[in-house]
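User: Can you write out an input/output pair for a complex, sequences first and structure second?

Assistant: Here is one pair. Inputs:
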Amino acid sequence: MLAVFKREFGAYFSSPIGYVFIAVYLFFSGAFFYIFALSMGSTDLSYVFLGMFFVLMIFIPVLTMRLMSEDNKQKTDQLTLTAPISLFRLVMGKFLSAFSIFLISTSVLVVYAIVLSFFSEIAWAMVWGNIVGIILLGAVFIAAGLFISTLTENQMIAAVGSMAVNVALLLMDSLASVIPIKFISDILSSISVFSRFSEITTGIFSLGNVLFFVSVIVIFLFLTVRVLEKRRWS
Amino acid sequence: MIEVKNLSKHYGSKVAVDNISFTVEEGEILGFLGPNGAGKSTTMNMLTGYISSTEGNAMINGVDILENPIKAKADIGYLPEKPPLYPDMTVSEYLKFVYNLKKCKLPMKSHLGEICELIKITDVKDRLIRNLSKGYQQRVGFAQALVGNPKVLILDEPTVGLDPKQIIEIRTLIKRLGKNHTVILSSHILPEVQAVCDRIVVINKGKIVANDKTENLARNLSADHRLIVQVEGSDSEVKKILEGISGMDRVVVTREAEKGVFEYHLDAKEGVDVRREVSKKLMARNYPILLMKSNELTLEEIFLKLTTGDIYGQADKFEKQMDKIEKRGGLN
């Protein structure tokens, strides 16, 4: 697992993708920080995090698009799949490499909070809630992107496909509101990523919400392993 | 060491590998020979656990590759048809990655250093794989298979893309490795298999058509009943005499080897040794024999015979096809 992690983590910095992702992240979070906090004289960072929700939705697929699809295309999967390593470890190594890049970029949000705390009192509970929320959200998007990347050998398709999945996760709410059958709309709104994310960002820590995100991550990782497994049998 | 039993692979209704069985002993080099698309790579992919078999099983060191893949894979070094390289890594980074991926226990620096020396890639070890020539990339792929010193080496066309000097080096290396490893090597280049392998499995359309020691394969299919003779004297006369020998099937005058000396290809009926008769009959009529040798099939001919059942027909058939195409106005 560590070998795969190291290789994939290194690959982010031997190509522009790692730098581009971090740069985009810093640019948007900085812009939001200036617009929603500094220029408005507010210590409420939740709009910054909300803005990042949409940025991550679009840009995490860039981070995950090549994770598996490149192996499929370059036939390097003939190395990884014939090595004495379980598929789960292989998938985890890939997941954690993208997740680490994401964590590194996210650490800047903590810096913003610390900067603000020099000027005035801030609600740390809310900040931590937001950070936990964005980390869980990022992990969900990464797991989904990893799964989509496994299905194709074309990076562009992987990226666009993952964006579509992310948007679908977001639209669950609006879909729920237009469906007249209460039973179905209840199900849809209960699996809505967005409403659970906004709940966490208000600083309310609910175990249910955290478990929800963790299960979505586990489901996508599980599906990724199954797809790799299934390909051998087809 | 490697035991393959009734292995089959179906892709939908297409049968890529059809119920093949063979074993490879420890310290043996097995050549896997067949035309393109015969099922060589598919079989190797099944042996290494990259794809699963539809039916049958493959055992590596007594471990089933599907039942206990991690244990079985630990003993295998695999060089696929297209070397599985990451172009954005340097050679030494890549080999370190493979070392860690295979959870190798040998001392890293000396082990990888040895492999680089053996494969002769030490001088490129700090270069990006993307910038290496095809031959070097192939060798890095080979080096990757050797990491961890696995007991079983499965090499899919290992000399593709190498220049003649490198081919000889790699062949010598495979021969050396074959002394204490079990090697399966696939190729459609016959002299290569002949030069390197102890035993040959010929595969065509997913089926095994021959499985024998390299020297037996050549002998069984040619034997004594096919001769080449050169005789001094009138070709029509000599031909008549030769055709008169009992057991003779066919006499063909192939060429005039020297002035007044003709070369004949003799096909006797199978199992009939006509050498003595030929010699006596010609001597009696005072036609000196200047050369007589058994006309052994080359491996090339054996291969065609096994895979198409016809040695001479193939080239003719192809020429006729080409003629047809040309009549229609050529390839454009």
